[in-house]
Structures are given as C-alpha cells and as structure tokens.
Amino acid sequence: MTSQTYLSELFSLDGRVAVVTGGSSGIGRAIAGALARAGASVVVIARREAELVRTVDELTADGCRAAWVSADLATSEGVRAAGEEAAAVFGEPDVLVNSAGVNLRPPMGELDEEVWDTTMTVNLKAPYLLGRRFGPGMAERGFGRIIHITSQQAHRAFVQSGAYGVSKGGLESLARSQAEAWSPYGVTCNTLVPGFVMTPLNVRLSQDPEKVAALAARTMTGRNGLPEDFAGAAVFLASRASAYVTGQSVFVDGGFSVH
Ligand SMILES: NC(=O)c1ccc[n+]([C@@H]2O[C@H](COP(=O)([O-])OP(=O)(O)OC[C@H]3O[C@@H](n4cnc5c(N)ncnc54)[C@H](OP(=O)(O)O)[C@@H]3O)[C@@H](O)[C@H]2O)c1
Description:
The chain is an alpha/beta fold. It has helices at 3-11, 26-37, 49-61, 76-90, 113-141, 162-182, 203-206, 209-218, 231-238, and strands at residues 17-21, 41-46, 66-70, 95-98, 144-149, 187-194, 249-252. The chain has a 7-stranded parallel beta sheet, with helices on both faces. The N and C termini lie far apart (41 Å). NADP nicotinamide-adenine-dinucleotide phosphate binds at residues 22, 24-28, 46-48, 51, 72-74, 99-103, 122, 149, 151, 194, 196-197, 199-202.
C-alpha cells in the first residue's frame, strides 16, 4: 500500500457533501477550502453574495465542487430556508460545519435584548436548527460529522464575554447533546476552539498592535492564529479517521488556553 492510499483511506472526503455556514470568510472560508480540496462537494452559506461568489470561484478554479447559498441565519426562517437550499445543491450533507458567528460585545450592563437575541440566534439557534435538519438523516445513513466553531469564551470570561460567551458555552453543550443522540449511529459531533485569529470578525481589536502582540504572547507558539490553522483539524473531524472522537472540544489555539 502506498502512503497516498493509506492517507486517502483515513482522510479523503471524496464523495462527501459538506455544508459550511460562514464559509465565505475567515475560519469558515479556510475550512470550506480544506474540505473541498480533500474531496468534498461544499456548499457555503452566508449573507453577502460578493464574498460567497469569490470563495466559490476560487474553489472551482482549483478543480473543486463548490456552490453558495445566501441566507440570513439571524432568523429561524432564514436558517430553515438555508438548510433546504443547501441540501438541494449536491444532496443531503454528510458534514455540517457551523462557523457563522457574530461578535457583539457591549458591556454587560448595556447588553440589550436585541444584541442578546441576534447573538443567540446566529451563534447557537442556527447550529441547533441545522443540526435538527441534517442530524437525523446522517444518523439514518450511518455516517455524519457535525463541527461547531466555539471560542475561548466558552471556557472562561474575559474581554467582555457577555452574550457571546454564553452562546459559545451553549454551543459546546449542544455538541455534547448531539453527540449523545447521534454518535451511536455514526454521527460524531465536536467543536473546534480557536484562540485569537485575525479575521473580519475582530477587525477593531486587530488594529491595536499592542493588544495583538499581548494576545500572541499568551500563546505557547508565540503567534496568533491563522484561518489556515483550522484546515487539518477540520479535515480530520470530517473524515473517517475521527470515528471515535465525539462530544469533544478540540483547541486549535497555539496553547493559548493552557498557558
Ligand atoms: N477570529 C477569532 O479570533 C475567533 C475566535 C474565537 C471564535 N471564533 C469563531 O469562529 C467563527 C468564524 O469567525 P471568523 O473569525 O472566521 O469571522 P468572519 O471572518 O467575520 O466570518 C464570519 C462569517 O459568518 C457569516 N455570518 C455572520 N452573520 C451571519 C448571518 N446573520 N447569517 C449568515 N451568515 C452570517 C459571515 O458572512 P456575512 O457577513 O456575509 O453574512 C462570514 O462568512 C465564529 O463563530 C466566531 O465566533 C473566531
């Protein structure tokens, strides 16, 4: 057996269908690219069409199968429509990645219900609704992979975690509940936990060189994260290789959380 055949048996996503929310930017975009290059047909979901088109064009130019669905995951109707439209492109997905997220962090005393509701809907309710839409089918077919992107704030409060931290804590619990429900049927459910990654999500913080350097110093690797850092972990969690890994929080943070 060649090493290529061996690696392919473990990690290839040939023939798989993946749906990646937030797949047009940052971490989600890097994960969508990794899954597509590993062989999956990928549907990316977000609101802005220009970014979606740019992502899909780049992947198809690379010989990948990719498509996009524009939807607003801040409403239940938007999530439901997104789920149906995404499944109509390449068929029911084998892999669901929930990377779409909002990072609204007013001081706790000023956190109004609108911020709370938007945060909870995009960051937590959308993953729940998409899980309910796709999870039972994955279980029936005997294979599925659900991957959520959470945050350090799921584990500790800092820099005004507010509703964001609550949503990410809930998302880790959701992964465990989904894992309990569907792992017996071949559907694993896990989370990837980033440290600080310079993406459009935290553009304000990224413009403060002192804070950026301080965050890098808190890691063990001495640098902040890059979207590409999530490629390998995402392919692993989406592949056959991770069949016995479920309900876990996998930290991709350069050691930030243990330093
Ligand atoms: N960057 C970090 O340091 C960091 C750290 C910890 C956790 N995370 C988590 O990692 C995930 C990805 O973040 P990122 O840094 O890659 O952010 P990003 O570059 O801003 O990407 C966010 C994505 O979510 C989509 N999105 C946001 N609101 C949406 C809505 N209402 N409906 C549909 N799509 C929506 C965005 O597209 P549209 O705006 O076009 O809709 C975009 O594709 C998030 O869940 C975030 O909480 C990031």
